[in-house]
Amino acid sequence: MKTMLWEDGALKILDQTKLPAVTEYIVARDVKTVADAIRRLSVRGAPAIGAAAAYGVVIGAKAINEPDLNKFMAQLEKVAVELTSTRPTAVNLRWAVERMLNKVRGRSDLSTADAKQILLEEAHKIFCEDLEANRRMGEHGQHLIPDGAGIITHCNAGALATAGFGTALGVIRAAHRAGKKIHVYADETRPLLQGARLTAWEMKQEDIPVTLITDNMAGYLMSQGKADVVIVGADRIAANGDVANKIGTYSLAVLAQAHGIPFYVAIPLSTLDLSLPSGDQIPIEQRAEDEVTSFGGTQVAPAGVKVWNPAFDVTPNRLVTAIITERGVVRPPYNENLRRIVEEGDYLSDDICIGANPAK
Ligand code: MRU
Q1: How many angstroms separate the CA atoms of 197 and 192, rounded?
Q2: Where are the domains of the chain?
Q3: CA nearest 156: which of 184, 128, 127, 123?
Q4: What's 4-134's CATH class?
Q5: Residues 49, 317: Cα–Cα separation, whole Å
């Protein structure tokens, strides 16, 4: 099942708010529909919202009937703001939209028709590169997973959160495909249940052994010797290796350290934000109170109770054993080694993602 598809000039977005009960695609033909889908988590997960926003730029560009490139660009900048203002934490969103606009900014040689075509090709490239990055991450990361390992993961860092294959779940998939007898423990991930609804579903689709736990069971599970590894994705990693990921990740990292269990984070380099020195500068999204006061549409807390609902937390670098990327596994000191892996070369070599529509 594809997280998103580009078909007949529209972006079809798998509505993840309805999974696993209902499989339904939203057909986005305007920017507002894409932005709403991102905001309400119909499409979610850092790389997936980046790719969706890239196609959102294509859709926005298509609707601009303006032959003058400067005027076209002025309108496209507004499209970019509409898309990037949807969610603040995952840097992939801004990264993708900026990458799209940079493709056509300052190109006075282009007609607007050319610019539209270039934007479509760039969106396909972002999608395709993410898929390839996940596969490579899987290859690098699976060597860290021992045969027979019990693996805890949090939220959903799978195919649904990316262009395909997944980051943390990509590593798990690769370990499974390498013949390792692994067992996944999926944290339910309150309040929106990405672990229960999405990770458990993804694992079951491929017959990867999975057991669902609520978030408060991880410590006891570790104390029982059932977990050998924790692996998660991320929404943004700062230059020093501090990791912003789904709320609850930090607690899991503290527990992993207390039990002497390695804590791995798998990311494409598009999730790395070297402009931020530490996690203190990462904006943390606050979401609506009713996500916490209700469960499955039923009110479970007294009316009017105060709620704190940060969607993400920051895990300090000292708790992170290694960061798995498409270029290889990065270990501390992160300040030095993350920068080095970025400076090593192009994001991915150019010959991989040219021409086709991979989101089809
Ligand atoms: O609020 P969500 O569901 O978008 O949060 C997603 C996560 O926290 C994921 O772990 C992260 O984006 C990595 S996805 C490869």
Answers
A1: 9
A2: 4-134, 139-343
A3: 184
A4: mainly alpha
A5: 25
Pairing relationship of beta strands 272-273 and 236-238 according to DSSP bridges: parallel
Position 348 scores a pLDDT of: 53
- Distance between Cα 244 and ligand 1 center (Å): 10
CA distance 118 to 104: 8
Catalytic residue among 130, 187, 228, 235: 235
* Catalytic (active site) residue 109: no
Domain 139-343 fold is Rossmann fold (3.40.50)
Q: Whose CA is nearest to atom 5 of ligand 1?
A: 45
pLDDT at 359: 77
* Closest atom of ligand 1 relative to the 154 alpha carbon: 10
Give ligand 1 pocket residues (Cβ under 6 A).
41, 44-47, 90, 155, 157, 161-162, 167, 194, 232-235, 245-246, 311
Is a pLDDT exceeding 80 seen at residue 350?
Answer: no
Least confident residue range of 115-119, 168-172, 274-278, 352-356: 352-356
User: How far, in Å, are 19, 197, 293, 346 from residue 296 at the CA level?
Assistant: 13, 12, 10, 45
Instruction: Please answer whether residues 225 and 199 qualify as being in contact, where contact means their C-beta atoms are separated by less than 8 angstroms.
Output: no
Whether this model's pTM surpasses 0.85 = yes
For residue 38, name the pLDDT band (cuts at 50, 70, 90).
very high
User: What pLDDT is stored for residue 152 in this prediction?
Assistant: 98
CA of 34 to the centre of ligand 1 (A): 17
d(CA 64, ligand 1 centre) in Å = 32
- Does residue 326 carry a pLDDT above 90? yes
Question: How do strand 10-14 and strand 25-28 relate by DSSP bridges?
Answer: antiparallel
